[in-house]
From TrEMBL:
The keyword Transferase applies. Keywords: Transferase. This is CoA transferase. SUPFAM superfamilies: CoA-transferase family III (CaiB/BaiF). GO terms for molecular function: CoA-transferase activity. InterPro entries: CoA-transferase_III_domain, CoA-Trfase_fam_III, CoA-Trfase_III_dom3_sf, CoA-Trfase_III_dom_1_sf. PANTHER family: SUCCINATE--HYDROXYMETHYLGLUTARATE COA-TRANSFERASE.
Length: 421
């Protein structure tokens, strides 16, 4: 295994980020940290509530054993600070005076009410980039509404587009995609906004305030649903195992012999050339059927028999073979067919393994190493990499408050007794 400490610093080396986020914004901080920024995660004394989200290592609930917190908080340092106290606010101001970026997910108006808003902090740090990532933004009639990732998927349009064919599950309700999609959408757009603001600062010398809305991010990420309605006046229907559409499209998800699933994108691709290649594939297994008839080189015949080709020949072919064999046989002929993998199957994905995607991250306090998802892009210079595991509660208090702000060890003890750190 490559020792991360021996690798060159990432492309954002030298960038100081103060992160005050919960589940809504922690992924954005992870992106910045894994790319080399010095991200200091600031939590209330006792730890952020996201540390209570399971599952936990060995099923033992503990603030430092949340696997969710581990995943979203790599490559960060961690301190505790009570912003409700004057001493806490003063310490934060000191940190902010030398920060490049502040990322926060507090309720709109919370930090300004404490005297820690952008106008307050940028007065002594004009190059500061401050991003507030909130459910509905800093303005608008929904500004103060409470929400969750699931509610964002509902209000943002995603759920209405996800579900099943009427023939598969009659009267099926909308289905929510899993995995904190709304938080990820918001974090990705916040990250883009921060990077753009930093480029602007490099040209002008001026920082700026970014009002990032998760609801806006979701509304921007509905595939073709919104453009279809705007430009064609048509809503979309939910479809099993494929994209929503204004009109029903041919099935694309089929069960393989081993009970798994294959996505065979055939509809819309049935040209004479495609039929010729498909015939060769199916015939190599003795399953081409009547597809070998020369009539199938006539586009009109192909169109008239599309249902037979897809629902009979392709479906039966996939049902006769294991998923992996179908997938690789189709890909070897250039077909856009894919295997439907479970998350745990990705750990054995030879392609990801060959690219070194999975990383071992050391947890010295446990004397163990754990596998983490790595970087989605390989840099030939400064790398995108996980530089360390998520911080323990208040792990870097001494480093930051004493080593950087000049407090003494006794000062830190007193502040802890007063509930400031």
């Amino acid at each position: 295994m490559i020792d991360a400490s021996q690798l060159p610093p990432g492309p954002l080396v030298g960038l100081r980020v103060l992160e005050l986020t919960d589940e809504k914004g922690q992924f954005c901080g992870k992106l910045l940290g894994d790319l080399g920024a010095d991200v200091i995660k600031i939590e209330p004394p006792g730890g952020e509530v996201t540390r209570t989200i399971g599952p936990f290592l060995d099923d033992i609930p503990h603030l430092d054993r949340s696997l969710s917190f581990w995943h979203y908080n790599t490559s960060k340092r961690g301190i505790t600070l009570n912003l409700e106290t004057e001493d806490g606010r003063q310490l934060f101001r000191h940190l902010a005076s030398n920060a490049d970026v502040i990322l926060e997910t507090f309720h709109p108006g919370y930090l300004p009410a404490l005297g820690l808003g952008y106008d307050d902090l940028s007065a002594s740090n004009p190059g500061l980039v401050m991003c507030a990532l909130t459910p509905f933004g800093q303005s608008g009639p929904w500004r103060d509404y409470a929400t969750t990732d699931l509610l964002h998927m509902a209000a943002g349009g995603q759920m209405a587009s996800c579900g099943y064919d009427e023939s598969d599950v009659p009267d099926a309700p909308p289905i929510a995609p899993g995995g904190g999609n709304a938080w990820h959408m918001g974090c990705n757009y916040a990250y883009v906004g921060i990077m753009a603001a930093l480029v602007y600062r490099s040209v002008t010398g001026h920082g700026q305030y970014i009002d990032a809305s998760i609801h806006d991010a979701c509304a921007l990420t509905t595939e073709a649903a919104i453009p279809t309605y705007i430009y064609r006046g048509e809503g979309v229907i939910r479809q099993t195992g494929r994209h929503h559409a204004a009109q029903p499209t041919a099935p694309a998800q089929f069960r393989s012999k081993d009970g798994k699933y294959v996505l065979a994108l055939v509809a819309g691709r049935l040209t004479p050339k495609y039929i010729k290649d498909l015939t060769e594939l199916l015939d190599s297994y003795g399953m081409a059927g009547d597809l070998k008839d020369p009539k199938y080189q006539d586009p009109e015949v192909i169109e008239a028999n599309a249902g037979h080709i897809i629902n009979d020949l392709v479906a039966n072919f996939i049902a006769s073979l294991p998923q992996e064999e179908v997938y690789h046989a189709a890909q070897s002929r250039g077909f856009t067919w894919g295997a439907v993998y479970t998350p745990e199957e990705l750990l054995d994905d030879g392609h990801l393994q060959d690219r070194g995607f999975w990383k071992e991250v050391e947890h010295p306090e446990l004397g163990r190493r754990f596998i983490y998802p790595g970087e989605p892009a390989i840099y030939n210079g400064a790398p995108w990499r996980i530089s360390g595991r998520a911080p323990l509660v208040g792990e870097h208090n001494r480093d930051v408050f004493c080593g950087e702000l000049g407090l003494s060890a006794q000062d830190l003890v007193v502040l802890a007794e007063q509930g400031v750190v």
